[in-house]
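Blackboard transcription, Thursday session:
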Amino acid sequence: METRTPKNVFKQGAISSGFIGDSIAKHQAKTSIGAHNIFLGQVRADVIGGKIVSAIEFTAYEAMANQKFDEIREAAFQKFELTCMHIFHSLGTVKAGEICLFVFVSAPRRKVVYKALEHIVEEIKANVPVFGKEIFEDETHQWKKN
Amino acid sequence: MRIPIKYFGLIAEITKCQEETISFSGSFIFELLETLHSKYPELKNNGFQVAQDRALVTVETRLTGEEIALLPPFSGG
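(Written on the board underneath:)
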């Protein structure tokens, strides 16, 4: 059972595949789990007006964002039969091709994790005050909108 | 009332600062926004939401003296 202590969801820089792998490994001890589902948000090298996005620099209203992440977690635990849930979001610069969002849900059975994961990711996109500055290869930038 | 205000993303580029404290005699968010619009005319051309004490509020909300934040469109993920 997860407790309601607000966690810091943010990590400085990209979320590494090693970190993601370790998170999966940690769940081997939780043997009531029968299904995991993982969402990984990756920085896309969009081409905008002939210029290529090379990185996104993330900032956030951290106090409000961590509160929102906590509300989303609590609501998801109410709505879905989940064993556990982990959310990590990058701050600072994340290059194209690197991971900036990691959402990991686990439950005894599979059907619930499909629905829960989509719900959580959409809630994050819509309601958490995180701001992405798309940096182009020529070092100009524009602000991303979801 | 002295009101601490935080700016983020594109809004912080317009204000050229990430936070400031404004001395202000009005009572409502919309009055504060009128003051900010005259200080930073470019704000008018950019959409943002307002949070007070880390929760989104409407412009008719009464100021409490808690922290205000001007939040441009969210783009996490």
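Lecturer's comment: The mean pLDDT of chain A is 95.
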